[in-house]
Input
Amino acid sequence: MDIWEKLYQAAKGLYHPQEVSPFLYAHHVVCALEAENGGIFTGFCVESCSGVLDLCAERVAALNMYVNSGQTVVKRLIAFRDKAPSGGGSGMPCGACREFFLQLALENRDMEILVDYETRETVTLKELLPNWWGLERYEADARRDAP
Output
């Protein structure tokens, strides 16, 4: 079983769309990610009637990683609804999640995101956000910390 199968199986177990309350709907998008140390962390989305309260599956998985291990670097990520990513835009993190991963750690530029489960096609975060605005801040921070 390769890492993508492991990630798929970990996320698939969370997929069971449900109304949590008249205001919240959850478990209809799921995610699993592999942290820098090889650990696997999962998350599912929670949508509310007020968009500002929504939580994407990808950010929930990342927060689970950070809260439970203190890690901030992601090696691989899979996200999907009712079936594994099948090309095109399926499985792609939203703009807010892309931004969150880059703000969490610059190394996340190199994280692989699964585009197509059958072919194992991936894309890196830096391919999705090639001219990210925050790079200059990371560079300035590194210069400030340099001896």
Remarks:
- The chain has a mean pLDDT of 95.
